[in-house]
Amino acid sequence: MELLPAMRERGWEAVVAMPGDGPLFKQIGALGFETVQVECGPYRSGRKSPIDALRFLSGTPRLMRQVRLLAKQIQPIWFM
User: Fold this and answer.
1) Contact 28, 4 (CB under 8 A)
2) Three-state DSSP state, 36
3) If you average pLDDT over residues 24-53, what whole number do you get?
4) In terms of C-beta density within 10 A (0-12 exposed, 13-18 middle, 19 or more buried), how is residue 60 classed?
5) For the whole model, what pTM was predicted?
6) Is 39 in contact with 20 (CB distance < 8 Å)?
């Protein structure tokens, strides 16, 4: 969130992908940045239970597909 204004100042564009549509999601959108929801979680903070680990493992392929599709749609330019 703190880096987004600096990115805009450099002339960069950003698409912010995150789970949910809570206050942070809305705040970023209100700043004029494109926001995209991804399906991920919810996961508890701190130590993970075995159920959390299973949900994470089973959800990873879906999240990978979502990120790949988003990258294909926006065709980012990568700088290394």
Assistant:
1) yes
2) strand
3) 88
4) exposed
5) 0.74
6) no
| pLDDT(40) > 60 | yes
Q: CA 63, CA 59: separation in Å to the nearest integer?
A: 6
SS3 content of the chain, % helix, strand, coil (to 5): 50, 10, 40
Token look-up 């942070």 returns: 24
From residue 27, alpha-carbon distances to 5, 21, 45 in Å are: 13, 10, 22
Which H or E element spans position 26?
A: helix 23-30
Helix (H, G, I), strand (E, B), or coil: what is residue 46?
A: coil
At 60, list the tokens.
């990873």
Q: In this model, does residue 54 exceed pLDDT 70?
A: yes
Domains of the chain, residue spans = 4-74
